[in-house]
Amino acid sequence: MAAKTDDSGPVLPASIESAWGLRERPPKGPRPGMSVPAIVDAAVRVADADGLAAVSMSRVAKELGAATMALYRYVGSKDELLMLMVDTGYGPSPGPPAPEDDWRAGLTRWAWAEHEVLRQRSWLLHVPISGPPITPQQLGWMEDGLRCLDGTTLGEGEKMSVLLLITGYVRNEATLTSQIAEGSRAAGVDPSEMMPAYGRLVARLIDPARFPALHRVLSAGVLYQDDDPDDEFVFGLDRILDGVEALIQRRAG
Predict the structure, then answer these.
(1) Is the pLDDT of residue 2 over 50?
(2) What Pfam families does the record point to (predicted)?
(3) What b/e readout covers 139-166, taking b as 16+ CB neighbours within 10 angstroms?
(4) CB 232 within 8 A of CB 222
(5) Can you name the residues that pair with 9 across neighbouring β-strands?
(6) pLDDT beyond 60 at 32
(7) What is the per-residue pLDDT across 189-203, written as a single tens digit (0 to 9) for each?
(8) What domains are there in the chain, each with its CATH number?
């Protein structure tokens, strides 16, 4: 968002106002068929195909068959474009919790929905986070996450903190999974062989007297197993939700 403020609060970039339906842009001389959604969709197609590094105003303009400068009538900067790409990349929120869901089931579904988005579009993990979300879809995700905690004993600030904790965990797990997959591809190694190979390497390197705890892990065969990444995700998410449950119970007592 722009730094300039007035009595009504921060001034939004025009393209973000357009995403909220607050204005149309540009005011005159638009290229036929050109619009903020068309530009953003083209940028997302580039990122889906070639990664975030391939996205530039000139590349997007080429996708649309337009001059680069024509894009700036609709999107003021690449930073604005990235913000709108994240909104489109995430897409609609998973919706409010189902009537039969308790808070835990609702947050589990919410976390898995974000996990799936980031698995399908790992380029989202490379977009710099320059501030809190302000676009329509992003705030929709926030709204649905908060609604999962309706009726609990948590305060409103605690509910926000729970969402930040969960989304931070989801992003971290998605980043690790994505980077390991990229590393295995670069090394020409089958991802299913990475952990077993790592276990064998560590076994050669360590002295059990110096690394007794790690030696016990190796002896148990843990590092030789090619575990499903989803199993690790479930374990971590469940432990976070266990902590949230303990806090809810403490507030109730």
Answers:
(1) no
(2) TetR_C_1 (PF02909), TetR_N (PF00440)
(3) ebbbebbbbbbeebebeeebbeebbeeb
(4) no
(5) 6
(6) yes
(7) 887 788 888 899 999
(8) 5-90 (1.10.10.60), 103-252 (1.10.357.10)
